[in-house]
UniProtKB/TrEMBL annotation:
GO terms for molecular function: structural constituent of ribosome. It comes from the Eukaryota. GO terms for cellular component: mitochondrion; ribonucleoprotein complex; ribosome. It is found in: Mitochondrion. It comes from Cutaneotrichosporon spelunceum. Its main location: mitochondrion. Keywords: Mitochondrion, Ribonucleoprotein, Ribosomal protein. This is Small ribosomal subunit protein uS3m. The gene is rps3. It holds the Pfam family VAR1.
Amino acid sequence: MNINNNMLVKYNEKFFPDLNVISNGNCHFYKGSERGNISIDNSVVERTLIIKNFFSAIKALSSVPKYVIGVEKLNIYVSYYRMKNKKNQNIRYALNQNTVNNLGDLLSKKLKRKVELRFINLKSPYLDRTIRAEYIGKNASMHPFSGLRKNAIKRTKIKKIIRQYKGSESNLPSDMIGLKIVFSGRLVTERLRPRKTVSTAKIGSFTRNNQLLIEHGSYTGKNARGAYTVKVLINHKKGKNYI
């Protein structure tokens, strides 16, 4: 993060002036190692991209933002996970009240209304579908899919008994009853195989009915053998508040 006021640039309303930085006039949010043009189709894509780049700069994986629109303000809920890495220890200071306030100011200007940010620090990358897909994808350069699959399934708690909730039970939002991981592409950690090869790992049930909810998350990366994609599908049984 760069907070030197003498080096700040004005944020353009239509395009980012620097392809590697987003600024609100007070603070820069860098894209890290990512490169390329930024395409903004609408305000939802733009604000999601801003939040994504904010967490990317502090080496964190973030979920898809959830927006709760109120009369006077917009609440934005984002879950994030900081990957355990010795290189990340020197940037712990990056996520603080000052940088979060700068992000909130930028989003408020873009949305033209008051914004309240609520961040949830996850202790495991397996608690969110988007973070889970990106975590598996980023580790694909070091481990074969078989190892990633084994680790993901081992850390997933599946509810095996499907039944209705009783009135005396707690208001749990959902139970995870199924997990599916679909990997397409080629890894440098595996023997060379056809480009269109698809590997799948599955645990639990994916039966469809009106009490179940299937969530999707995906991540696409590149290596020396081309692009690869990780898709994660999580099947939930809705809690009694959602039935």
